[in-house]
Design a protein that fits this description.
Length: about 775
């Protein structure tokens, strides 16, 4: 928090306006039994350490919430930390207070600050600003870059892709391996068509995920493709239009897996989902322009090209008519019911929704730690609880379990919260590891769907993950399984069955799946804009989401202030761009400009200065990725593994260094150069010289010229003009002694002279000449 400009803090130990601003983090929250606003009531053990501050950093810790969450308002720049202030103290009635100045010097502290509800304040509705959905909006018109080259991989291309051949040249290949072995230059955009995956849905989904993994790993393994983008083409795998439903459930898993691959390898992959229509020339041109751009997720519906964005769901005045009735007389089944989230949800349904008959299912069943205590607690609240050991992915076992539900309390609601994770970068995944993650997600959900299709269920809630929507580094298998759940929810609703899939962001309450996460993991979430949710907020969002007539929702808290900081070495993910308030999307820069701009600060340096600056960069970025307190703690000679890097954090560091330096770095760069010092030396060695940097845009212009040559070759007059211009340019580059001479044939000794003398021609001369060619 910061005092307004011109306000003098002199005369105050702590300026009251500054203190009041600090406490707004709680007073606008949901503290209080009924969710009214709150006001400070009682201080305990207050200490003042320094005076005269005009900026404060404040940390508030909820003393009564068993998650012991910290809510911070860091405002050395005058801006609070969004996503924290609005929910502080949501589960209790007192907080501890710690206050520092921007330099980290303690200013004040309080062991406890108690609050009470504002008198006469009306109870508030649950907060829903953290409830989002994916929206598909029309793509802005853009010109088609004529210099890009294209290829098509696979058979049975849909009409939308076939129509692209009318506006771009598609070089067709049966497989990626055939493309890799082709002698021609690697295309800029490669469209790979997903085949159909026949068979029963669970087996087909495995086949689809295995196929996608094979394509991704093959693409990343070939360094020739480093500057190209692989675009996965599917048909009806996502709901991207009004009344749309996912028709291809297996390929929904392809989308989830590829989204994770995108997160780990920025710019290398994209998704394009098409309908069955045959677009006209104008639509084909718009589609080609969109695929040529930087949008990672596109869909073609009814002749309109659309892009994916997250958007906030605004609370309705009244609850939707589709809100599930948690029938007290019926049985509610919760898979993963003895896990952390299952227990929290069971308590919530009993205390808030009057559920009186619970069937908690897990593979451990009554043997799960704490299961007996949970049953006793819920029984004391008036509920009848059955804990059963059953793997919901086992169809026969689940059928038997459902048959045992008493007729007087029939099954009326299902919550599928079970799941496992097997994190690892996508290059290390295997089909077997994918299958191990898909079983408790895909197989179990399909069994629940099919075995309860004849039941009159008021609720069928699938616990998905934000990884299915945004992608998650190291979570390709998990993202694939959850993307299938999202599609299944749409599939059920299209058939008149209840369903909602909730793509959860992280909960602050550590679960079996998140209990191994450390400080570096949560710091990575924060850099991506995600903030863990307190349990009370998450359960409020559960109620709000189940009360809406929508198939897929994203309950997740985002704090996007850091993403808007120009100093961040990350690009705002495309899916989040619609959430940034007050900031329009910047105009797209050319590829060469994007590559050059981050490296500008190193260009003016030479020799030892540049090497030192690159070492400082490596240490700073390594400290950030590992959540160290500062770069000085990163030992230059220590191995990255000894410093705490794993495959996932190594990928993140690689991506950050690539963005900062403009270099294309392989995924193995940290393992090939295993210490910060060795890596900095490598970056120094491969950093382009001034001549190489000057040559790069010239070569790009020549590639554009090359792409346009077929249009000129058929016209003798134009071809003659072009030949004369090119010979004149070659004479100039060859040097004054060769002026007027005829250029040697390609491949002759004169080519070396041309290359050696490129620096002799100024950039202005080269670009002016190329401009003349266009006229």
């Amino acid at each position: 928090m910061a005092l307004p400009d011109g306000t003098d803090p002199a005369g105050f130990a702590l300026h009251p306006a500054l203190l009041d601003a600090a406490l707004q983090a709680v007073s606008v929250g949901t503290l209080g039994d009924e969710g009214q606003g709150v006001m400070p009531f009682s201080w305990r053990n207050v200490a003042l350490y320094s005076s005269g501050a005009d900026h404060l950093r404040v940390r508030l810790a909820d003393l009564t919430d068993n998650t012991n969450n910290m809510y911070s308002a860091n405002s050395a720049d005058g801006a609070g930390n969004p996503g924290s202030a609005g929910n502080a103290g949501s589960a209790g009635s007192a907080v501890s207070v710690q206050v520092w100045d921007p330099a980290g010097t303690p200013v004040a502290s309080a062991e406890s600050l108690a609050f009470r509800p504002r008198a006469g304040a009306a109870p508030r509705r649950p907060r829903t600003e953290s409830l989002l959905r994916t929206e598909w909006t029309p793509v802005p018109a853009a010109p088609l870059p004529r210099h890009l080259t294209w290829a098509l991989v696979g058979d049975g291309a849909p009409d939308a892709v076939t129509a692209l051949s009318g506006v771009v040249t598609l070089d067709a290949h049966p497989t990626l391996r055939d493309l890799s072995e082709a002698p021609a230059a690697v295309p800029d955009r490669v469209l790979v068509v997903a085949p159909s995956f026949p068979g029963e849905p669970a087996r087909a989904t495995r086949s689809a995920a295995h196929w996608a993994l094979e394509q991704v790993q093959g693409w990343l393994a070939d360094e020739r493709f480093a500057g190209s983008r692989l675009v996965f083409v599917t048909r009806g795998a996502v709901a991207a239009g009004s009344g749309d439903e996912p028709a291809d459930l297996p390929c929904a898993a392809v989308h989830g897996l590829v989204r994770a691959a995108m997160t780990e390898n920025p710019g290398r992959f994209a998704l394009l989902d098409v309908d069955g229509g045959a677009p006209g020339t104008a639509t084909a041109a718009a589609l080609a322009a969109a695929v040529a751009g930087d949008e990672p997720q596109l869909a073609l519906r009814g002749g309109t090209v659309r892009l994916a964005r997250l958007a906030r769901v605004h609370a309705d005045t009244e609850t939707d008519s589709a809100a599930p009735g948690w029938n007290p007389a019926g049985t509610t089944l919760i898979t993963g019911g003895t896990g952390t989230l299952g227990r929290l949800l069971a308590r919530h349904l009993v205390t808030e929704h009057g559920v009186r008959h619970l069937l908690l299912v897990s593979r451990s069943g009554p043997d799960a730690a704490g299961a007996g205590r949970l049953c006793d607690e819920l029984a004391a609240l008036g509920a009848e609880v059955t804990v059963a050991a059953c793997d919901a992915a086992d169809r026969d076992a689940l059928r038997g379990l459902l048959a045992g539900i008493p007729a007087e309390h029939p099954l009326t609601a299902v919550v599928h919260a079970a799941g496992v994770v097997d994190d690892g970068v996508i290059t290390a995944l295997t089909p077997e590891r994918i299958d191990g993650v898909l079983a408790p997600k895909v197989d179990a959900a399909l069994n629940l769907h099919e075995l309860t299709a004849s039941e009159d269920l008021s609720a069928f809630v699938l616990f998905s993950s934000v990884a299915s929507t945004l992608g998650g580094a190291g979570q390709a298998a998990y993202a694939a399984g959850n993307a299938f759940l999202d599609a299944l929810a749409g599939h059920r609703r299209a058939r008149g069955l209840s369903a909602v899939s909730l793509c959860w962001g992280p909960w602050a309450e550590l679960s079996t799946m998140t209990g191994k996460l450390g400080a570096a993991d949560f710091a990575r979430f924060a850099r991506g804009g995600l903030v863990p949710m307190a349990t009370a907020e998450a359960l409020d969002l559960f109620d709000a989401a189940c009360g809406r007539d929508e198939a897929v929702l994203v309950p997740a808290r985002f704090s996007l202030a850091g993403l808007q900081d120009a100093g961040q070495a990350v690009e705002v993910p495309a899916m989040l761009r619609g959430l940034l308030r007050g900031r329009g999307r910047p105009a797209a820069a050319s590829a060469e400009a994007k590559a050059a701009a981050p490296a500008d600060r190193f260009v003016a340096l030479a020799g030892a200065q540049r090497k030192r600056a690159l070492l400082d960069l490596v240490r700073s970025e390594a400290a950030l990725v590992l959540a160290y307190q500062g770069p000085e703690l990163v030992d230059v000679e220590a191995g990255f593994l000894d410093l705490g890097f794993d495959s996932l954090s190594a990928v993140e560091l690689r991506n950050r260094l690539s963005r900062q330096t403009g270099l294309t770095l392989p995924a193995t760069v940290l393992f090939d150069h295993p210490t910060p010092g060795a890596l900095a030396t490598h970056l120094h060695e491969v950093f382009p010289s001034d001549g190489e940097r000057a040559l790069a845009p010239v070569l790009t212009e020549l590639e554009k010229l090359d792409a346009n040559l077929p249009d000129l070759a058929a016209d003798d007059a134009l071809r003659g003009r072009l030949e004369n211009r090119l010979r004149t340019l070659l004479d100039k580059l060859a040097g004054p002694d060769a002026a007027g001479a005829t250029a040697p044939p390609p491949g002759g000794p004169g080519d070396d002279a041309v290359i050696d003398n490129l620096d002799a021609a100024s950039d202005d001369e080269i670009f002016r000449f190329l401009d003349e060619l266009d006229t």
